[in-house]
């Protein structure tokens, strides 16, 4: 692979949050900013839709579906990118944490639909377990200190560290991720 292709791949990794780190305060402020921005975008979409209808005709929800889906997908992509960057800063691997988090929430939704008595209410498709599982990672993203681990990528604005020694075949990336997720989950390097 040529050097410009490697640089492009590294840049894409940082752009989508797969290799970047984001501190607690940065995460909090960017999350607030994204929420305000998305609220403003939703307000503009709703205003344009309601002003575009004829006078005396009730506005249709069908006219909001397309823009709402696009904005929802963009918001979800931004949120997952920010969470990946913060999880990487904590010292965990977002490739293991985020799918596990989503899997637990999906399993909880299936249980709540099969057993409606366990759900939080008639209009909710989740249980108290889901609420606690969702609260835990959110609190960790906001309050867990940054890892001082040399193996984790650098934070935004942090000077570049020298490249580590090459890995052997026995220490593959997949084996390291599984070992971190199963044995060292949440432990900090000393």
Describe the structure.
- The structure is a single chain.
- The chain has helices at residues 3-15, 24-51, 62-90, 94-114, 128-143, 173-183.
- The chain has one domain (3-159, 169-183).
- The chain starts with a helix and ends in a 7-residue tail after the last helix.
- It is extended, with a radius of gyration of 21 Å.
- The chain has 190 residues and is mainly α.
- The mean pLDDT is 78.
- It has six helices and no strands.
Short overview:
The chain is mainly alpha-helical and 190 residues long. Helix content is 62%, strand content 0%. It contains six helices and no strands.
Shape: extended
Proportion of residues in helical segments = 55-70%
Task: Report the average pLDDT across residues.
Answer: 78
Could you state the order of secondary-structure elements as H and E? HHHHHH
Structural class: mainly alpha
Q: What count of structural domains?
A: 1
Low-pLDDT residue intervals, each spanning 5 or more residues:
none
Query: How many β-strands, per DSSP?
Result: 0
Radius of gyration computed on alpha carbons: 21 Å
Largest sheet: none
Oligomer description: single chain
